[in-house]
Amino acid sequence: MGRRWIGIEMGDHAATHCVPRLRKVIEGEQGGISESVGWQGGGGFEFYRLGEAVFDETGAIHSGITFAPLAAHVWFAETGKPMTGVHEGPFLGSHEGKGLALLYNGILGDKSVSGGNVLTRKTLGIIRASAATFSGPITVYGEACRLSPETLKMENLAFKQTPYDVRAR
Question: Which UniProt key words apply to this protein (predicted)?
């Protein structure tokens, strides 16, 4: 029928009713409008489920948000592409020659105030170790930075502070 559209549904009926109906339409089933327009089938669709909300109604990061959904959000905000794979360390990967790392929610196993969420020489070493094959510039998101502007420049790093530099929209 030459149509392109996005359907948004809330509730289990999206999977129990909408998906089976779309499959029938693609297969050429002659119910609904299909018969009157001479539809013979074809096309396709993708089905996605949204993850948990990263931000609250004020735009702040939800207090219970875990590393994975925030990492996926940061990756998408920086690259415009969905993040693939599971990341067990702070280095999220590289895109178009630029690396991206996130220090958040004790990903390094250190939840102390000046620990794993803060960019220090120690956490930089861990980022570099997890990005062993990458040598380009890296943007690091974290709670705070204890490295001087000179060190950031020398190490080819950009620092962005969570939650303030994480774009909600």
Answer: Methyltransferase, Transferase
